[in-house]
Design brief:
Elements: H1 40-66, E1 72-82, H2 88-91, H3 102-113, H4 116-126, H5 128-132, H6 151-161, E2 162-167, E3 172-179, H7 182-240, H8 245-276, H9 282-306, H10 315-351, E4 355-361, H11 374-402
Antiparallel strand pairs: 1-3, 1-4, 2-3
Helix pairs in contact: 1-11, 3-7, 4-7, 7-10, 8-9
C-alpha cells in the first residue's frame, strides 16, 4: 500500500511567479476576500426606504381604515336618442327634416355634466354642500367637503365625487355618484339625469323653434305676396270695369268672325245680282246698303278692340296687363301653398319630441359601502412611493459612481 504524500514543509512550496518542479506554469493565488461590512450608505438606503415607502404606506393605511368615512355609490347610465319617424308630408315628398346628429348632442351633454351650471342647479335643488359635508371635515379632511366653500370649490369636489364614463363610439354615458348616505347618492344621480334630460329637451326645443320660425317667416312672406297680387288684380278690375279681358276679347273676336262671314255672303249676293240683273234693279241697292252696314259694324267692332271701355288705353294692353297680374297671383298662390305645407310640417315636427334622453341604467340604491377603495388606494400609494424611492436611490448611486 503506497503511503500518502507528505505535506511540503513550510517555506519549501513553489513561490509565486515561480515554476513547479514538473515545469508547468504557476497559478496566481488571489488574496482572500474580506468579510462584507455594513457601510453608511446601506443604512441611508434602508432609512430612505422607511421614510419614503414604509412611512407613507403605514400612514395611508392608518388614515384609510381609521379616519376615512364609508361612501356609497349610485350608478346611472343614459344616452341621447333621435326620433327617426317621418311625418305624412315627408313620406309623400317631404319638405323639412328636423332630426339632428345625436353624437354631437352627446358631446354637448358630456361637457354639460362637467360644467358649473349643472353643479349649481343640483346644489340649488339638493344642497350638495350639506350632503358632502355630512361627515365632519375634521374627521375626514381628505374626502369630506370643506363648507361653505365657493362654487369653484364645489365644482372641484364634484369632479371627485361624480365620475363620468363616456364611450364616444356608442354614445353611452355612465355616471358613478358618491355620497356618505346611499339615499343621497341616489338623489344626486336622479337629479343629474333630470337636469340632463331638461338640457337635451331645451336643445331640441331650440332646433324646433328655429325650423318653425323659418317656416313661419316664409309663410308670412308668401301670404303678403299673395295679398298684394290679389289687391293689384282687384284694383285693375275696378279701374277698367272689366272682370276678365280675355273673355271680352273672345266675344269680340267671335262677333267679328260672324260679321266677316255675313259680309262675304252679302258681297257674293251683290256680285250675282250685278251679273244677272240690270243696274237699276232695287235689289242691288238693297244689297249694297247691307254690305255698307256690315262694313261699318266691322269697323266699329275693331275700334272697340283697339281701345278699352274707358278709352284710355288699347284693349290689347289691358289684356297684357291682366295676364301679368293673373300670372303673379297664380305664382303667389302656389308659393303660399308650398309655404303653408312647410309650416304645417314644421309644426307637426314640433309636436313630436325629436331628441330625448334614454336611460339604460336607472339611478341605483347601494346597500353596502365599497368606497373609498382602501386596498386599491393603499396599493397605488405604496407602488408610487416605491417607484419614487427606487428612482431616488438609482440617481444617488449614479452620481456616486461618477465621482
Amino acid at each position: 500500500m503506497t503511503p500518502p504524500p507528505k505535506p511540503a514543509a513550510a517555506g519549501h512550496g513553489p513561490k509565486p511567479g515561480g515554476k513547479a518542479k514538473s515545469g508547468s506554469p504557476s497559478i496566481p493565488v488571489a488574496p482572500a476576500a474580506r468579510p462584507m461590512r455594513t457601510q453608511r450608505r446601506h443604512w441611508l438606503v434602508a432609512l430612505s426606504f422607511m421614510i419614503m415607502v414604509v412611512a407613507p404606506a403605514a400612514l395611508s393605511a392608518w388614515y384609510l381604515w381609521t379616519r376615512a368615512a364609508d361612501q356609497y355609490a349610485s350608478f346611472v347610465g343614459f344616452s341621447v336618442r333621435t326620433e327617426e319617424a317621418s311625418s305624412a308630408i315627408e313620406i309623400l315628398g317631404g319638405i323639412t327634416d328636423l332630426s339632428g346628429s345625436s353624437s354631437s348632442d352627446t358631446d354637448i351633454l358630456y361637457e354639460f355634466l362637467q360644467g358649473q351650471e349643472l353643479v349649481r342647479l343640483v346644489d340649488d335643488r339638493l344642497d350638495l354642500r350639506a350632503i358632502w359635508s355630512r361627515v365632519s371635515p375634521e374627521e375626514d379632511p381628505v374626502f369630506a367637503f370643506q363648507p361653505p366653500g365657493t362654487i369653484e370649490d364645489l365644482v372641484d369636489h364634484w369632479a371627485r365625487k361624480v365620475r363620468i364614463y363616456y364611450d364616444s363610439g356608442t354614445g353611452l354615458i355612465d355616471l358613478r355618484v358618491l355620497a356618505y348616505d346611499p339615499v343621497d347618492a341616489q338623489r344626486i344621480a336622479q337629479e343629474v339625469f333630470e337636469q340632463s334630460s331638461a338640457m337635451i329637451n331645451a336643445l331640441s326645443a331650440v332646433a324646433r323653434e328655429d325650423a318653425i320660425g323659418y317656416a313661419r317667416d316664409e309663410l308670412a312672406q308668401a301670404e303678403e305676396r299673395l295679398t298684394g297680387a290679389r289687391v293689384a288684380l282687384t284694383a285693375f278690375r275696378n279701374r277698367t270695369q272689366i272682370v276678365d279681358p280675355t273673355i271680352d276679347t273672345q266675344g269680340q273676336m267671335g262677333l267679328l268672325n260672324t260679321l266677316q262671314a255675313q259680309l262675304a255672303e252679302a258681297l257674293i249676293e251683290l256680285d250675282i245680282l250685278r251679273e244677272t240683273t240690270r243696274e237699276s234693279d232695287p235689289r242691288i241697292v238693297q244689297v249694297e246698303r247691307r254690305v255698307s252696314v256690315i262694313e261699318n259694324r266691322i269697323a266699329q267692332e275693331r275700334a272697340v278692340l283697339g281701345t278699352s271701355a274707358a278709352g284710355d288705353s288699347a284693349f290689347a294692353d289691358l289684356v297684357g296687363e291682366y295676364e301679368r297680374l293673373a300670372t303673379d297671383q297664380e305664382f303667389a298662390a302656389q308659393a303660399y301653398t308650398a309655404a303653408l305645407a312647410a309650416f304645417d310640417s314644421a309644426r307637426n315636427e314640433a309636436r313630436r319630441q325629436s331628441r330625448y334622453l334614454a336611460a339604460h341604467v336607472r339611478p341605483t340604491l347601494s346597500e353596502a359601502s365599497r368606497y373609498p377603495e382602501r386596498v386599491v388606494l393603499l396599493s397605488m400609494i405604496t407602488l408610487f412611493a416605491f417607484l419614487m424611492w427606487a428612482v431616488v436611490v438609482l440617481v444617488a448611486y449614479s452620481l456616486r459612481d461618477r465621482r
